[in-house]
Amino acid sequence: xxxxxxxxxxxxxxxxxxxxxxxxxxxxxxxxxxxxxxxxxxxxxxxxxxxxxxxxxxxxxxxxxxxxxxxxxxxxxxxxxxxxxxxxxxxxxxxxxxxxxxxxxxxxxxxxxxxxxxxxxxxxxxxxxxxxxxxxxxxxxxxxxxxxxxxxxxxxxxxxxxxxxxxxxxxxxxxxxxxxxxxxxxxxxxxxxxxxxxxxxxxxxxxxxxxxxxxxxxxxxxxxxxxxxxxxxxxxxxxxxxxxxxxxxxxxxxxxxxxxxxxxxxxxxxxxxxxxxxxxxxxxxxxxxxxxxxxxxxxxxxxxxxxxxxxxxxxxxxxxxxxxxxxxxxxxxxxxxxxxxxxxxxxxxxxxxxxxxxxxxxxxxxxxxxxxxxxxxxxxxxxxxxxxxxxxxxxxxxxxxxxxxxxxxxxxxxxxxxxxxxxxxxxxxxxxxxxxxxxxxxxxxxxxxxxxxxxxxxxxxxxxxxx
Length: 467
Hints:
Layout: H1 13-32, H2 44-64, H3 69-92, H4 97-103, H5 105-116, H6 118-123, H7 130-141, H8 149-178, H9 201-224, H10 229-254, H11 276-302, H12 306-327, E1 336-340, E2 345-349, H13 351-355, E3 369-375, E4 378-384, E5 407-408, E6 416-418, E7 421-422, H14 426-431, E8 433-435, H15 439-452, E9 461-466
Antiparallel strand pairs: 1-2, 3-4, 4-9, 5-7, 6-8
Helix pairs in contact: 1-2, 2-3, 3-5, 7-9, 8-9, 8-12, 9-10, 9-11, 10-11
């Protein structure tokens, strides 16, 4: 009685292969966690093993989906491993037929099994059909709706996210250069290796450009060309060309002195601004973005409710704004210096510099004082010299004409205190009340007020806050 191999639930040896593939993937990734940078090197065999890991993941998925392409992929990659192994050993002058046979036994078994097995031919029957392709294409075309708020909302989120993710991608790319897998210059002091949340907006712009410019081209090619491979290849070439032209334009505008990058020693460079290696890398990244990442992200977001996505949008925007203000926008206030050693934060205020100096003709006398304000959050200590109006009978500014004196004294505070002008104006006492951490701001306001009246020369004033 002939055996029936057509039952798609009975994978036989292919199920065993799925188990082996999954175990190998998990173990290899887990062991990779314990590799410490600068304590290991990747040789040719290691790179080939990682490449096989990717192949195993793809094969696992295709078998799971019963795709006919699984048979061709596994046979092709098994043959690839055999040929590469033979070529490598011949190049090393260490070729032995018996050793090569032992090294390649698993690939030989895979190749022969998928070449001859009736179960494989009976079970792996699902094609990449035209119907499935049309459905997928219609769905992906529907993602591109620039007249809707949802389209631009998602695009803003992609810009924010990929500005940071692009930093990590460049670090991964430079890591390949570091280990000699790609040619290039490795700079251990680059911004790439510090501040891992430092956004690189150029990658956010790149992601947006992929969606606005390259994604419609990909859809057009798929719609008018029957196969999948040809549109993919054409899209890759177009993506690489567009990205390279953008880099060339930026280089001619901003990098004529080669201060930002210099490819003059790279193979296939043009004017030292672009090179073949980067063009291929840009093509791969842009193709992944247009063919895989963007459609998958849009599909995932459409499965969420509008409120969830809008909430996530608010969080992403505020989070990115925090990074921008931390790393890019740093406003220096005159007379204010903020320093931190990781544990304590110190704020120094030079009131004289902050107010731009005293008005000409103001009378001043040397004096000194200190004020301490204690609060639940910490202790603020103000130290410095105060210049007050001269003793009784001294002439004051025009704003205090008819008044005999203005004297400024400092008081010590416990929890809250008062810093007030004495003798001339009772309103100053109410205005200059200082409570807790608001001490510095109120003192500055009082001094500014007196300076405007022409009767007070602002002091040099330092405030140190220890939390």
